[in-house]
Amino acid sequence: MDVVEVPTRARAWALACAVFVVAAVAQRLYWIAGGRWGYTACDRTDLVDPAGGCGADQVVALPFWSGWGAVGVGVALVVVLVCTVRLPGRWATAGSWAAAALLLVVAFPLHLVFEVPAALAGRPSDWRDLGARLALVVGGALFAGLANASGPRRGPAAVGYRPVPRWTRRWAYVAVTLPVVGWAVPHGLWVLGVPVGISARELNDIEQNLSTATGLAITLVPPLAGLLVLGLVQRWGQEFPLWVPGLRGRQVPRRLAVIPAGVVALTLVTYGVLSVAVLVGHLLAGDTRWSDVWDGWAVTATLLVFLGWGVSLAVTTTGYALATSADTSMTDLAGSGRP
Fold first, then answer.
1. Residue 97 sits in which domain range?
2. Same domain, 142 and 175
3. Closest CA to 103 of 69, 137, 146, 144
4. What is the pLDDT of residues 288-339, one digit of tens each?
5. Are residues 97 and 242 located together in one domain of the fold?
6. Are residues 180 and 317 in the same domain?
7. Which one of 36, 110, 210, 278 has the minimum C-beta count within 10 Å?
8. How many CB atoms are located within 10 Å of the residue 327 CB?
9. Residues 135, 197: one domain?
């Protein structure tokens, strides 16, 4: 059997991934040994102290996925690294992509989109949780870089602007509209004190816990971020605009658009599916009543908004990837543009 040597450029990525995994596993072992620096219990206790980890120092029994479960995941990531370096090939590269997707989904970048602006606006935030999520995003990016560097070399991407199929544009407009109609509008009304689709108690909680600046940040950031989807169907998503210093007119790297958009789409769909599953489970168990769902119909609808947002973004990203592929002819694009 021929031995395939991993490209030299992939070794640097593998080393960076190894540093990330070792640091992550060392931190979990530190928690297992009784240390609590960097650990947060804000999702498990009733204490309201995000800056102090909500009583993390008082936690005796570490949850499985925060301790040995995370160590097991770290061992699996080490196996992926070893296979990528020692046995490079299609399957090893697929493992690196899977590791990147897992880390990014667990990080749930959408949470950062909400919480970071709120924290900057002055809302008390759980820095331990935000730091852990940012670390997972970095780890996901490192494994994505490893997968890209160790994979087979492909032909060049298409050069010049290539119009996307008509169906791609339609899905892009859906992906832009959903966070505006399904998120910004109801949250804006709640910040203004209008109880649309939520109970009076929930509205009272919002008024007491959210400052005006925080409410505006939470309301406006997601739809503004969603406008980036338009880059997948416009010229500036394939060629840097003339006003960008040093890059004006140059081709936008295909992966620079496809990978982030694909990760966000996967995260949104995962969050939507899991949230709906949790809601259904609570209904079947009797923990949540149908009357509660109807009283808070706007909150329930938000779960479907995330799911639809993710699906529409995934379809739009697929159309962009097809349009910018050097293997796709202009005739194919013209044909796929018919309604």
1. 8-150
2. no
3. 137
4. 888 878 877 888 888 889 899 999 999 999 999 888 876 555 445 545 444 4
5. no
6. yes
7. 278
8. 10
9. no
- Quote the CA–CA distance of 174 and 316 in Å, as a whole number: 9
Q: What does the DSSP assignment read for 46-94?
A: S---GGGTTTGGG--S--GGGTHHHHHHHHHHHHHHHHHHHS-SHHHHH
| Lowest mean pLDDT across 38-52, 135-149, 252-266 | 38-52
- List the structure tokens of 104: 């990014």
Burial class from Cβ neighbours inside 10 Å (0-12, 13-18, 19+) for residue 319 reads buried
**pTM recorded for the entire structure:** 0.68
- Residue 26: count other Cβ atoms within 10 Å of its Cβ: 12
Question: Is 251 in a helix, a strand, or coil?
Answer: strand
Assigned domain for 292 exists? yes
Q: Which of 173, 178, 180 is nearest to 234 (CA)?
A: 173
| Residue 155 belongs to some domain of the structure | no
CB contact at 8 A, 100 and 147: yes
Does 228 share its domain with 319? yes
Select from 150, 177, 200 the last residue of a domain: 150
- With 80 as the cut, is the pLDDT of residue 41 above it? no
